[in-house]
Specification:
6 helices
Length: about 130
């Protein structure tokens, strides 16, 4: 197959084949649809870094001030409350409350040294 035959075979894939002016109309339609976005981008390109930061500051400064005010109120309320120690969690509480006569209770009474494998055994046994 010669190069000319390949070009002729590929002309069929061209949407402008046998339609004069197709590509000109296509370009015009694309530019018409993109006009708003292109104008916006031209305007944004003219904006300086200082102007962008100034625009952000109009919304960020009041939000930061409100967050600081809320944080100061929360800290003041926390300081007024008496610092009572929270009750410590017991292993039974973490495993789900009253376990009854399980192997966990047996291990507690036997004075066995705690280890990770035994703990996981108790947890798995309780979830069945």
């Amino acid at each position: 197959m010669e190069d000319n035959d390949r070009v002729t075979a590929l002309e069929v894939l061209d949407p402008g084949h046998e339609r004069p002016g197709y590509w000109g109309r296509f370009r015009t339609r694309i530019l018409k649809n993109a006009a708003f976005e292109l104008a916006r981008r031209r305007e944004v390109a003219r904006v300086s870094v200082a102007a962008v930061l100034s625009g952000w500051s109009r919304s960020l400064i009041p939000v930061a001030a409100a967050a600081a005010l809320i944080a100061s109120i929360m800290i003041a309320n926390e300081a007024r409350q008496q610092a009572e120690p929270a009750p410590r969690l017991v292993l039974e509480d973490m495993l789900g409350g009253a376990l009854g006569a399980s192997s966990f209770q047996a291990a507690l009474g036997a004075g066995v040294q705690p280890n990770t494998a035994a703990f996981m055994t108790f947890v798995e046994e309780d979830n069945r």
